[in-house]
Specification:
It comes from Regulus satrapa. The chain is of the alpha+beta class and 161 residues long. Strands 4-3-2-1-5 form a five-stranded antiparallel β-sheet. The chain has one domain. The protein contains four helices and five strands. Strand 2 and strand 3 (44-46) form a beta hairpin. The mean pLDDT is 88.
Length: 161
């Protein structure tokens, strides 16, 4: 049981770190234009230098929603980690980590909403670019989506023995 708790704790910490990286770094989409490589993220457009991300007025609300949901997912993941540590030392034997699991599933839902909006609105939006693909931040966000779901379900079924 101790090994299972330690494993869940390590995966949860890894998920928090990956959420930070995927939200902060600016490699959600990578475009190739002639010989230059351009990466876009949630905050900046980076070529050789980084500048403010140019967003049309119709896509601005979608980008703000993606930014907000990614930040919310980080907050909920950290709150779930703190709740797990608190419940680990205060919860009675035989009780389940319901509150921690519920908060982690809210984090999972925030990641799902953010990545879905980004996929629907910003995949291949630059018409003059060729050879675009998703960057590592986008992939990390989907990995965090999977990990947060698995961790949330494990917290719900896990009993303190």
């Amino acid at each position: 049981m101790l090994v299972l708790l330690a494993g869940i704790f390590v995966v949860h910490i890894a998920t928090v770190i990956m959420l930070f990286v995927s939200t902060i770094a600016n490699v959600w989409m990578v475009h190739s234009y002639n010989v230059t490589r351009i990466s876009t993220g949630l905050w900046l457009l980076c070529n050789k230098t980084c500048t403010q991300l140019p967003v049309s007025s119709e896509d601005e609300a979608a980008l703000k929603a993606v930014q907000a949901f990614m930040i919310l997912s980080i907050i909920f993941s950290v709150v779930a980690l703190v709740l797990f540590i608190i419940q680990l030392f205060t919860l009675e034997k035989g009780k389940r980590f319901y509150l921690t699991g519920a908060v982690m599933l809210i984090c999972w839902m925030c990641i799902l909403i953010a990545v879905s909006i980004y996929t629907a609105r910003f995949t291949g939006t630059m018409a003059d670019t060729t050879n675009f693909h998703h960057g590592y931040c986008f992939i990390l966000a989907w990995i965090c989506f999977c990990f947060s779901f698995i961790i949330g379900i494990l917290y719900l079924v896990l009993r303190k023995k």
